[in-house]
Structure formats: C-alpha cells, structure tokens
Amino acid sequence: DAGVTQSPTHLIKTRGQQVTLRCSPKSGHDTVSWYQQALGQGPQFIFQYYEEEERQRGNFPDRFSGHQFPNYSSELNVNALLLGDSALYLCASSSNDRGRRQPQHFGDGTRLSIL
Amino acid sequence: AQKVTQAQTEISVVEKEDVTLDCVYETRDTTYYLFWYKQPPSGELVFLIRRNSFDEQNEISGRYSWNFQKSTSSFNFTITASQVVDSAVYFCALSDWNTGNQFYFGTGTSLTVIP
C-alpha cells in the first residue's frame, strides 16, 4: 500500500523562476493538502484540494496555486520565486471528513532551495 | 484565534528515561481535534494519534501515552523508557470546526535520546 509520494525530492531554483511540485495521495484518499515548512518551524497550511477544487486556503499569496487531477493527484505551483520561498514543501492526503477530522498522512516532502 | 504552543524547543534524555512533551492549544471552538506527529530526519511526518474534544480519556499505546486535559487546554505526550529510535522532532497539531480542514501545527520539540 503506497503512501503519499512527492516529486522531486530536491529542487534548486533562482529568484523569479517558477516551480511545480507534484504529489500522489495515499491509496483510498481523495483530499490533498499542501504545507510549507521553513527550517526549525512547524508546517504552515497553504491550501487543500478536494474534488478538483481548492476547498480552503491559508495565508499565502496568489503566487502559490495548485491543481488536483481526476486521479486525486495534485500539483503545487509557485511563481516569481523569492528567497523566502526556500523551505520543505509537504503534501498530505486524507479521506473526506464526513464530519470527522481524519488524520492527514504526509509525504517525505520536496526540499526547495532558492538562490 | 487558533494556536498551538510547544514551549520545549529541544529535549535531551538518556536512553530508558521517561520524557514528556508538552502541548498547549488555543481555540474558541467547542469541537476540535488534536494530533501528534513525529518527524524523523528523513522529513516525513508520521501520524501518531488523534483525539477529539469530546473524548478526554487518556490513551496508552505501548511506550507512548497521551494526557488530554480540556481544563488546561493541554495535550501532553509521554514516552516511557525512551529509545534512540525515538529521536525526532515531535509536532502537536490542532484542527477545529470553524477553520474547516486546516491543521495548525506547533513549532515542534526536538527530542534527542542519548545511548
């Protein structure tokens, strides 16, 4: 039973560039959330996708956008990269709540470094 | 406002000692869920436990135990007879009804178990 998989593992970009990160959810999960984790900090919620739509968004600028595909996989896009975007980006999947807050299962993350 | 505080930044214990990780949360909602996650050096966040606000029963799972007290808004985590493999960063997280599916994480406690 494959867990949450993310690609790539590491990525180096320069300021102003654009980046796309990918995530495949755990089998049986239909909801994908993205988090940004700066060094020494806890994960910060970026947004969540369900039924191919952004269901909820954290306090991140419009430079951060996403997409969910019919197979539930998801992409995170970041435009006009800033040095402060350097972080570990975590993807988490869960099954739809149905009134009960299901635990989110996390991937290993993508380490993004901006030069 | 929702907030999770993990006051202990770093803890070091000698193998076989017991250790308690503290978590204090803030929420105005009466319905909420609390979680503990473990993050080893590999980066993946591993789900440990979920509690809902209606269930204050404490739980023990092997060497792990959790103490949930609504009166003090605390959800503490104890590892009994610690082992080197317990070395990791531990995060407490909150998800409440008003904020939907967003998880709020604390800043984490880095636990080092010395052999």
Q: What attributes does this structure have?
A:
heterodimer, A: 115 residues, mainly beta, four-stranded antiparallel beta sheet, 11 strands, B: mainly beta, six-stranded mixed beta sheet
How is this structure best summarized?
The complex is a heterodimer of chains A (115) and B (115). With 115 residues, chain A is an all-beta fold.
User: How many distinct helices of chain B?
Assistant: 0
| Total count of helical runs of at least 4 residues of chain A | 0
**Which structural class fits the helix and strand makeup of chain B?**
mainly beta
Overall number of strands of chain A: 11
For the record, give the distance between the C-alpha atoms at the N and C termini of chain B, rounded to a whole number. 41 Å
Radius of gyration of chain A: 13 Å
Helix and strand run of chain A = EEEEEEEEEEE
The average pLDDT score of chain A comes to: 92
State the secondary-structure class of chain A: mainly beta
Which two chains form the greatest contact, residue counts included? A-B, 27 and 24 residues
Give a quick account of the main beta sheet of chain A: strands, pairing sense, barrel closure: 7 strands, mixed
Mean pLDDT of chain B: 91
Overview of the molecule:
The complex is a heterodimer of chains A (115) and B (115). With 115 residues, chain A is mainly β. In chain A, strands 2, 4, 5, 6, 9, 10 and 11 form a seven-stranded mixed sheet that branches. A four-stranded antiparallel sheet of chain A has the order 1-3-8-7, with no helix packed on it. In chain A, a hairpin with a 6-residue loop joins strand 4 and strand 5. Chain A is globular. The N and C termini of chain A lie far apart (37 Å). In chain B, strands 2, 5, 6, 10, 11 and 12 form a six-stranded mixed sheet that branches. In chain B, strands 3-9-8-7 form a four-stranded antiparallel sheet, with no helix packed on it. Chain B has a two-stranded antiparallel sheet with strand order 1-4. The termini of chain B are far apart. By secondary structure, chain B is mainly beta.
